Amino acid sequence: MIRDKQVPMREQSGAERIRNFDEVPYGYSDDEAAAEAARCLQCRNAPCIAGCPVGIDIPAFLLAVKERDTARAIAVIKTSNALPAVCGRVCPQETQCQGVCTLGKRFEPVAIGRLERYCADWESTHPAAPTSVAPSTGRRVAVIGAGPAGLTAAGELRKMGHDVTVYELLHVAGGVLMYGIPEFRLPKAIVKREIDGLRQMGVRIEVNQVIGRIATVHEMLAGGFDAVFIGTGAGLPQFLGIPGEGLNGVYSANEFLTRTNLMRAYLFPEYDTPLRVGRRVITVGGGNVAMDSARTALRLGAEESLIVYRRSEEELPARREEAHHAKEEGVDFHFLTNPIAFLGENGRVTGVRCLRMELGEPDASGRRRPVPVAGSEFEMQADSVIVAIGNGPHPLVLQTTPGLELNRWGNIVADPETGATSIPGVFAGGDIVTGAATVIEAMGAGKRAARAIDAFVRAK
Amino acid sequence: MYKILEKRRLGPGIQEYVILAPDVARVGKAGQFIVLRLHERGERIPLTIVDCDPKGGGVTLVVQEVGKSTREMGETFGVGDSVLDFAGPLGVASEIERYGTVICIGGGLGIAPLYPIARDLKRAGNTVIGIIGARNKELLFYEDRMRAVCDEFHVMTDDGSYGRKGFVSDPLREILAAGRPIHRVWAIGPAIMMKVCAKVTKEFSVPTVVSLNSVMIDGTGMCGGCRVEVGSATKFACVDGPEFDGHAVDFDLLMARQKFYAEEESCSLERYLAERKGAETR
Ligand code: FES
């Protein structure tokens, strides 16, 4: 008999968790994991593998979990995915592997993400078999940006026997995994562990490297690198361009989250970087980053955390699970609401002037376009406002690489299958190519590019 | 880790450091800055480059001890010690060209970043008029270095304890009012000083460059905390600047944003000082 429902994962209650930065779900026990893995039908055609951007052999690892051979399970995962502890937590499985799970047609799909996380966490407490690395090819590859795309490309290339150096602009590797995604969703110790794993494989990771200035892409190619991979991400925050955006207390989500996650402002003054939050915080936007910001605000002591989003709940781009967690924690959603000005006194933000919206005809994205309701202007009070409406491509490397073709949004034009750009030997992947997308999509791009880079440098 | 090669006191609470960072020293230019972090718990501190030694690998910086981190650096980091992180060069370099006659104005700590600009302008064949000023004699530094690269030189102190009594904008106004042809002005210092200088040069329609020290977190363009209004467009000081057209900058907004974390900063400093005191009496 098949259990129709997933084995639930225990988690901190909403009231409890908003008082700490600890992870929300606790993870499966051995028995829970084996029971959940046993729900897998082991379908021949395995639609889940095709649904996974990095193509993990999901039925094989689930079978291993069911047979309580977690070492085998993690080995299966790791042949396709270098960062399973991260992916098990932040992948939108509901639209990928779990979204196409055969079981999911009638019942709840197998909780593949939770089981991936289970295997990765098991590995952290068990001595890991070192990932095997092919004999040295003598080829050198530079990777710019130590985020999900770059780290994945680096891991894959290293396994193929290439000499890989990753250059990171900030003082730690991890990119958005470190500065963007909060501790309670992705503990930083886990990111560090996965990155240490790459170092142990022999990937060199250099932080504090301002590529574009200390060396350009062209200089790297001329100076001994056989290929360069650009994975510099979508790091440039966008603002609404409405009056009052310069007021103190108006933050980009990047600033709010960077101060908290990367600089540990929640431990100020133990750590030197402060962050002022206030009693009532309004976050503008509807994506995962908006959810992360609103939930972080609560943990930093805000009594009220509100989200304003210009479309309706249906169109919310955030993962259902994230919106659900936010609601459980008391985040108050205001849909069909669009800010038109930030209000302030003495240089500090005090509120937001908004318009009510209604849904009109579908727009280019296929979603119904929100249109303002005439005469619906109203004001909402706020001590801080977080603007979480997206990020543009990070400019530094792009501006200093003549000959690199960009599209009209300023993203790099790259072959979706190989990551090849307009410059021979230069490959790119992740948000710098696609615009802001998911961690796993960036990893998938890094992986595909690694294959193409491997072929390219071997043919040289 | 980045080693401190030299450290020299320039005045009360003002230290000059030379830090070993060969990659930065090779390419760093006047007008650009670096970000450093002292230790694991440290904030990212942006500092404008004063000098780069491409051969020896040293980057010269001048630090004024205004807050907890800079105080801590001054008091506990000496020659032979290392800072944990050091990244650069960031920002856009000064546009050094042969303009003709230029005025270079440095107020307070602003004298430090001004010096390499004046030097490079001189090398590029400009006639350089230097004006430096500070609250009092003690806080004035780099007079000799500046004198050496200027064709004409003015020193001002607010209290008249050295040079002429008055503000750096006084000789600026006199020179412009005398009708001498001036092709460009650089003014670097406290926001209020840059605001006043830009106001004067605007009257005479002389293009003026200012260097904005807005609050920065990463210094790499990813947070927008450093944003400033320039000619009603929002710019990020760390990637679009730090130099901007002084006639287009909204200085009042800049000053308001600089003050936002003043209370937290003073708490942090108080706490640090209490800890230091505790450590000394123990
Ligand atoms: S300091 Fe973060 S964008 Fe400039």
Helices and strands, with pairings:
The complex is a heterodimer of chains A (460) and B (282).
Chain A: H1 14-17, H2 30-37, H3 47-51, H4 58-66, H5 70-80, H6 84-90, H7 112-124, E1 140-144, H8 148-159, E2 163-167, H9 176-179, H10 188-200, E3 204-206, H11 217-222, E4 227-230, E5 236-237, E6 250-252, H12 253-262, E7 280-284, H13 288-299, E8 304-308, H14 320-328, E9 332-334, E10 337-345, E11 348-362, E12 368-372, E13 378-381, E14 384-387, E15 391-392, H15 395-399, E16 426-428, H16 431-434, H17 439-459
Parallel strand pairs in A: 1-2, 1-4, 2-3, 4-16, 6-14, 7-8, 7-14, 8-9
Antiparallel strand pairs in A: 5-15, 10-11, 11-12, 11-13
Chain B: E1 2-11, E2 14-20, H1 22-27, E3 33-37, E4 45-48, E5 51-53, E6 58-64, H2 68-76, E7 82-83, E8 85-90, E9 101-107, H3 111-123, E10 127-134, H4 143-149, E11 152-157, E12 164-165, H5 169-177, E13 184-188, H6 191-203, E14 208-211, E15 227-230, E16 233-236, H7 237-240, E17 243-245, H8 251-259, H9 262-281
Parallel strand pairs in B: 9-10, 9-13, 10-11, 11-12, 13-14
Antiparallel strand pairs in B: 1-2, 1-7, 2-6, 3-4, 3-8, 5-6, 14-17, 15-16
Helix pairs in contact in B: 2-9, 5-6
The complex binds FE2/S2 (inorganic) cluster (FES).
Give a description of the structure:
The complex is a heterodimer of chains A (460) and B (282). Chain A is of the alpha/beta class and 460 residues long. Chain A has 3 domains: 102 residues, Fumarate Reductase Iron-sulfur Protein, Chain B, domain 2 (Orthogonal Bundle); 164 residues, FAD/NAD(P)-binding domain (3-Layer(bba) Sandwich), CATH 3.50.50.60; 151 residues, 3-Layer(bba) Sandwich (FAD/NAD(P)-binding domain). Helix content of chain A is 33%, strand content 17%. Chain A has 17 helices and 16 strands. In chain A, the strands form 4 sheets. Chain A has a 5-stranded parallel β-sheet with strand order 3-2-1-4-16. A 5-stranded parallel β-sheet of chain A has the order 6-14-7-8-9. In chain A, strand 7, helix 13 and strand 8 form a beta-alpha-beta unit. Chain A is globular and about 65 Å long. The model of chain A has no long low-confidence stretch (mean pLDDT 92). The radius of gyration of chain B is 18 Å and the shape is globular. By secondary structure, chain B is of the alpha/beta class. The longest helix of chain B is centred in the last third of the chain and has 20 residues. Chain B folds into 2 domains: 89 residues, Beta Barrel (Elongation Factor Tu (Ef-tu), domain 3), CATH 2.40.30; 158 residues, Nucleotide-binding domain of ferredoxin-NADP reductase (FNR) module (Rossmann fold), CATH 3.40.50.80. In chain B, helix 4 links the parallel strand 10 and strand 11. Chain B has a 7-stranded mixed β-sheet, with helices on both faces. Classes of the chains: A alpha/beta (460), B alpha/beta (282). At the A-B interface, strand 5 and helix 12 of A face helix 1, strand 8, strand 15, helix 8 and helix 9 of B. The structure holds FE2/S2 (inorganic) cluster. FE2/S2 (inorganic) cluster binds next to loops of chain B.
